[in-house]
Specification:
15 strands; 4-stranded antiparallel sheet; about 600 residues; globular; about 10% strand
């Protein structure tokens, strides 16, 4: 059996996880009038909420929130400008891209998940496997100089246009393949303006991608809706066997502006798949099926013959991982593996044609993704109302049938695993001054960056993080229907407490069976004990909440401040009262200027603490 790239010749060369001593439990005394919503919330039920006088409780909370978290005196921050601050930003695709220009003047590390299995990435995952690179590619393109900017050199603008180009989805397969052939042969007009070394590098990796596809010609790769940026990034990752190396090359060619770096949350060369466990015990497999499930494509027109159907691979069963005494806990390099490289059947975590069969679904459909020749074209769904982002189609619809209890990672055989966070990710948490939980999809963009070993401890025990800021979504989506700000806080705190270290194993005689709906993938009985009492308090991982006053998510300021979290309200600049009321109805959203003003108030507030 051939060895994996994650199997070094000697055990001493393996990267060992950092062992962090458990943090001493601190009694948490809250205000007498703390909202019943918080008291009943599962993540706060073990926080030992006290019942002392309101004055004493509030004073202790303020003292807790204003503790010095590092060696530098906070008074030094009084005159600190936002450009002088170093930031670690956890985000996903669409929501984070809308505000990423805020961080261009700062020293910023963007942490992105690699679990997206939709769009152009779905077809790459189906045929080639590997980590999902769609969100990373879109962030790198956003950080590159705009091709329409007068200050952008023509040659650089041509490179960015090429890597931003996406083939149309509303063409037949032959036409899409002809467009790809022109790119590979160097005759496409997309090459205009690109000369010299950059053209050679780009062309070589497109040819390499073509050779990889030819080795798997039986899978019938579809170029409809194909992103050339995804092709280049996936090709370089496969060539170097390193996603960070691929990101470096992409950044170098596009000359990523500012002082920004992009880091994957998990360091792996294999496919990372997430699943959602709902409160009604159903399980949904794959990010697409959680956030925008696949729906049937509209019937082809008379002018376009119906393409032959691809065989659908049955969804593999999901099961809780069993204890393996001789190997201990499986690591990400042991569990997240691309079955495409080993000749096994492709699981439905890769999206494509099979993704539509892998959903545990929910009655709250509304929106989804239509399969267009293997790639997925999304219809994002709001819980109710709101404006559409440019280039997206949104529909009114409901949320999931039941609330999400947790997000967890599985490997290609359906076993739950506990991946380690990327070392660069943990280093960023230990060296940056401000942590930002970006706006975006809570459960499929932010939580996959948090449900990793070591992240909770790194955030709570960092000696450099001065502020841990949650940018509250201005409206809910399919994943967060009817959520309040307290629910967002609860999800983050609960996730960090649950996955910071692997849970202890139960004896086999104590495993508890689970009940699942017939439509949901079957899970075997769990071998793990319930999560222990939380060791991270809300203020350990979130110090500030920034929200838009025009937003549609309920914010109970008094209850949040009773937890020790400072609340910062931001109004849209220049908006009249009438505009604000109208936007309240439609659903306001964060933009770069709103985020900049909100973070500026947080930073100035640190100097006055």
């Amino acid at each position: 059996m051939s060895s994996s790239v994650f199997d070094p010749p000697h055990p001493s060369l393996r990267i060992q996880p950092v062992v962090v001593e458990p943090k001493p439990f601190r009694e948490f005394k809250a205000h007498d009038t703390l909202s019943p919503t918080v008291l009943l919330n599962p993540s706060f039920e073990n926080l030992n909420l006290g019942g002392e006088s309101s004055t004493k409780g509030r004073r202790e909370l303020v003292d807790l929130a204003s503790e010095e978290v590092g060696g530098e005196d906070l008074e030094d921050w009084t005159n600190k400008e936002i450009e002088d601050v170093s930031v670690c930003c956890l985000s996903g695709g669409t929501g984070g891209n809308a505000i990423c220009s805020t961080f261009s003047p700062m020293t910023t590390t963007f942490i992105l998940p690699i679990s997206d299995d939709g769009g152009s990435s779905s077809e790459i995952l189906r045929c080639l496997g590997g980590p999902s690179i769609g969100d990373i590619r879109s962030r790198l393109i956003r950080l590159a100089p705009s091709p329409t900017s007068p200050s952008c050199p023509p040659a650089l603008a041509a490179v960015t246009r090429l890597l931003s180009h996406r083939f149309p989805w509303d063409v037949d397969e032959k036409e899409a393949k002809d467009l790809w052939r022109e790119v590979v042969e160097g005759t496409s007009e997309l090459w205009d303006g690109i000369d010299g070394d950059k053209r050679e590098v780009l062309h070589r990796f497109f040819v390499f991608f073509e050779s990889e596809l030819l080795q798997r010609a039986h899978k019938g790769f579809s170029f409809r809706n194909c992103s050339l940026g995804n092709v280049f990034l996936s090709s370089t990752q496969r060539f170097f066997l390193s996603l960070p190396a691929a990101i470096f090359l992409f950044s170098s060619i596009t000359q990523t502006q500012g002082r920004s770096t992009v880091i994957p949350a998990i360091l792996t060369n294999h496919t990372a798949t997430i699943a959602a466990e709902l409160a009604n015990s159903q399980t949904i497999l794959g990010q697409c099926n959680i956030s925008h499930p696949v729906v049937a494509a509209p019937p082809p027109s008379a002018a376009e013959p119906e393409p032959p159907a691809r065989p659908v691979t049955p969804s593999p069963p999901i099961r809780r991982r069993q204890h393996t005494p001789s190997f201990g806990y499986l690591r990400v390099e042991d569990g997240i593996e691309s079955p495409s490289s080993s000749g096994q059947a492709t699981p439905t975590n890769g999206g494509g044609s099979g993704s539509s069969q892998s959903s545990g679904g929910g009655k709250g459909g509304g929106g989804g993704a239509a399969t267009k020749g293997g790639n997925l074209v999304f219809t994002r769904t709001r819980a109710a109302g709101g404006d559409s982002d440019e280039g997206e189609h949104e529909e009114e619809g409901g949320g999931l049938e039941s609330r999400i209890q947790r997000i967890f990672y599985i490997n290609y055989v359906g076993t739950e695993i506990y991946p380690l966070a990327s070392p660069e990710y943990l280093n960023a948490l230990e060296s940056k001054e401000v942590l930002v939980y970006s706006c975006g999809s809570l459960w499929t963009s932010i939580v996959p960056c948090l449900a990793l070993q070591g992240v909770g401890s790194a955030i709570a025990e960092s000696n450099t993080l001065r502020a841990k800021v949650l940018l509250l979504n201005s409206e809910n989506d399919r994943e967060t229907k009817s959520y309040t700000a307290l629910d967002y806080i609860d999800a983050i705190v609960r996730t960090l407490n649950r996955y910071d270290t692997p849970p202890p194993l139960l004896p086999q005689t104590q495993t508890q069976p689970h009940t699942f709906a017939p439509s949901a993938p079957h899970l075997t009985p769990s071998s793990f004990a319930p999560p222990p009492s939380p060791k991270f308090l809300p203020t350990d991982v979130i110090t500030h909440l920034v929200y838009l006053v025009d937003g549609r998510v309920e914010v109970d300021v008094s209850a949040i401040e009773a937890l020790g979290i400072k609340v910062v309200a931001v109004e849209r600049e220049g908006a009249s009262e009438q505009d604000r009321k109208g936007k309240k109805k439609k659903g306001a959203r964060f933009d770069a200027e709103n985020v900049r003003r909100g973070l500026g108030r947080v930073i100035k507030g640190l100097g006055r603490s």
